[in-house]
Amino acid sequence: KNQVEQSPQSLIILEGKNCTLQCNYTVSPFSNLRWYKQDTGRGPVSLTIMTFSENTKSNGRYTATLDADTKQSSLHITASQLSDSASYICVVSEEYKLSFGAGTTVTVRA
Amino acid sequence: KAGVTQTPRYLIKTRGQQVTLSCSPISGHRSVSWYQQTPGQGLQFLFEYFSETQRNKGNFPGRFSGRQFSNSRSEMNVSTLELGDSALYLCASSLAPGPGNNYGYTFGSGTRLTVV
C-alpha cells in the first residue's frame, strides 16, 4: 500500500476559481513534505517544502498546509489560471527515502 | 543559472539492447538522484549519488546501474532492456544528499525512453 495517498485523482475547474488538493501520508518518521507541479512531458518543479514544524507555506497563488498530527497536507490554488493545468505531486521524505503520491491532475478550463 | 540538463530527450531502443542516459546537475550541486516515472507506477526512486558514491538505492533490478563523475555529472545505464522499461527517466540535483535534506531537489526535463 502506498504510504502517500492523494485525492482527488483528477479535477476540472474553471479559470479564476479556487481548488484544494489533498495528501494523506503514513510515512514515519517524517522529515519534510514537498509539493511539486509537473507539466506534461516535463520534470517536476518544486512549489513548497515544509518540515514537521511548519503549518503553512505559500508560493504565489499556491498555499500548502500541513497537519503533522493527522498526517495530512493540502495544496490550495487561488484564482486558477490556464497555466495551472498540470499534475501536482505530494512527496514525503524520511531520512533515507522519498515516498511519492500518484499525483492529482488539474485541468483548468476557460 | 543553468538548470539540470538531461540528454538525450527522447530515445527509442529495441528489447535486449542497453542504454545510457546522462544528467548534468546545477553547478555546485553534488547530489544527483534518478527516478523512473510511468503512468501505472508514478514516480519511483532508482538511486542517489553524492561525491561519486551511491548513497541510496531503490527496489530496481541490477540491470539498472549508475555512476557519478568527479564533476558531479551522472549517468544511468539500463542493460538488457525490457518493454516495461519504457518510461520517463528523471534526474534531480541537490546541494546535499539524502531525501531528508531541506534544500529541495531540482529536476531535469527527463529522457523519454521507448523500448520496442
Summary tags:
heterodimer, A: 110 residues, mainly beta, 6-stranded mixed β-sheet, 5-stranded antiparallel β-sheet, 0% helix, B: 116 residues, 7-stranded mixed β-sheet, 4-stranded antiparallel β-sheet
> Which structural class do the helices and strands of chain B define?
mainly beta
Strand percentage of chain B: over 45%
The first-to-last residue Cα distance of chain A is 37 Å
Residues in helices of chain A, as a percent range: under 10%
Gap between N and C termini of chain B = 37 Å
Strand content of chain A: over 45%
Mean pLDDT across residues of chain B: 92
Radius of gyration of chain B (Å): 13 Å
Which protein chains make the most extensive interface, counting residues with beta carbons within 8 Å of the other chain's beta carbons? A-B, 24 and 22 residues
Q: In oligomeric terms, what are we looking at?
A: heterodimer
Catalogue the unreliable spans of chain A: none
Helix content of chain B: under 10%
Structural class of chain A: mainly beta
Low-confidence stretches of chain B: none
Strand count, sense and barrel status of the largest sheet of chain B are: 7 strands, mixed
What is the radius of gyration of chain A computed over CA atoms, rounded to a whole number of angstroms? 13 Å
Number of helices in the DSSP assignment of chain A: 0
Extended strand count of chain B: 11
Shape by Cα distribution of chain B:
globular
What would your notes on this structure say?
The complex is a heterodimer of chains A (110) and B (116). With 110 residues, chain A is an all-beta fold. Chain A contains no helices and eleven strands. The mean pLDDT of chain A is 92. In chain A, strands 2, 4, 5, 9, 10 and 11 form a six-stranded mixed sheet that branches. In chain A, strands 1-3-8-7-6 form a five-stranded antiparallel sheet, with no helix packed on it. Chain A is 0% helix and 57% strand. Chain B is mostly beta strands. In chain B, 0% of the residues lie in helices and 52% in strands. Chain B contains no helices and eleven strands. The radius of gyration of chain B is 13 Å and the shape is globular. The N and C termini of chain B lie far apart (37 Å). Classes of the chains: A mainly beta (110), B mainly beta (116). Chains A and B meet through strand 4, strand 5 and strand 9 of A and strand 5, strand 9 and strand 10 of B.
